[in-house]
Specification:
Elements lengths: L6 H13 L2 H8 L3 H15 L4 E3 L4 E3 L1 H23 L9 E7 L1 H6 L1 H11 L3 E7 L2 H9 L5 E4 L8 E16 L10 E2 L8 E4 L4 H11 L9 E3 L2 H9 L4 E5 L11 E7 L4 E9 L6 H15 L2
Parallel strand pairs: 3-4, 3-5, 7-11, 8-9, 8-10
Antiparallel strand pairs: 1-2, 5-12, 6-10, 6-11, 6-12
Helix pairs in contact: 1-2, 1-3, 1-4, 2-3, 6-10
């Protein structure tokens, strides 16, 4: 089913929501209030449901309208970006790439690829939402971003998960730690030391605990934090050791930290790209995704 609406209909809806007033929105768009109301009515008829709740003193988005706001905002940004891009030629063409990325991938791995991409396409801007796994999937499903980088597949029939790479869990320790002298370690060797782990609400912790339970292994933690970056800070301070995905660790030689493989068993998380089924990417996003997948293939 196709929905017949115009860009100005979407601008009208977003302006009313952001300005919380038909009068102020009409002034901002240089429309009469009756013309603005007709735009909103036309959009609501196309959607098949009310998008705004109106009272004599207040206007706000309905539940459906609230869900549509991120998608409408991104559509308008991409449209405006495309207009500016028409003036540019070749590799300097502008654009906007919007993605949802796991914080662990966004911190160390993603900047390297973005820098490489910007050298070739210096006028393409990025909006990166560094979100936990579940929130990232929801951002893709709502159309708030063009695609996501996530650790899990999804049962949502409207989403597609394309596997990219396995990201193993590794030991992170200071260079002067006793385990740093070993080329690899087993899970049992971690037990004598203070272990720093992330909270059970983390997708990484859930995945790790479930995999270890199959081998009747339970980690005894001493410090529990919310973010993996915090655990690295505690490791660097000499407070203990941590287990975290390799992608969440420094990729180059670090002055204080080392990583070591952990075996018996080796546990990894699957990293992939999440997209909406049947959705299309902007030209800028397509180019970036191609470079991203190539870079991941080299890691």
């Amino acid at each position: 089913m196709s929905i017949n609406c115009e860009i100005l209909d979407l601008r009208a809806f977003l302006s009313v929501v952001e300005l919380e007033s038909f009068h102020r929105a009409a002034d901002a768009l240089h429309l009469s209030q009756p013309a603005l109301s007709r735009r909103i009515q036309k959009l609501e008829q196309a959607i098949g449901a009310p998008l705004l709740e109106r009272t004599t003193r207040h206007v706000s988005a309905t539940a459906l309208g609230t869900e549509l706001i991120p998608l409408v905002r991104r559509m308008l940004e991409e449209f405006d970006g495309s207009l500016f891009a028409v003036r540019d030629i070749g590799a300097n063409r502008g654009g906007l790439v919007t993605i949802a990325c796991l914080p662990t991938a966004a911190f160390y791995f993603l900047p390297t690829v973005v820098r490489q991409f910007n050298e070739e396409y210096p006028n393409i801007r990025f909006r990166i939402l560094d979100l936990p796994a579940t929130d990232g999937l929801q951002a893709v499903a709502r159309g708030e971003v063009e695609f996501g980088i996530n650790i899990m597949g999804t049962s949502d029939p409207d989403l597609i998960f394309d596997r990219l790479v396995e990201d193993p869990f590794v030991l992170a320790a200071r260079r002067d730690h006793p385990l740093a002298a070993k080329p690899a370690v087993g899970w049992a060797e971690l037990e004598p030391y203070h272990l720093i782990t992330v909270h059970r609400s983390s997708g990484n912790r859930t995945l790790l605990d479930a995999a270890l339970a199959k081998s009747n292994i339970k980690l005894r933690w001493f410090y529990e934090v919310t973010h993996l970056s915090t655990s690295l800070g505690l490791v660097e301070a000499g407070l203990g050791i941590s287990v975290l995905p390799r992608m969440a660790t420094p990729q180059d030689d670090h002055p204080f930290l080392i990583t070591r493989p952990i075996g018996d068993p080796e546990i990894s998380r699957t990293i992939g790209v999440v997209r909406r089924r049947g959705g299309t990417l902007s030209p800028a996003a397509e180019r970036f995704l191609e470079m991203l997948m190539g870079a991941w293939g080299r890691n």
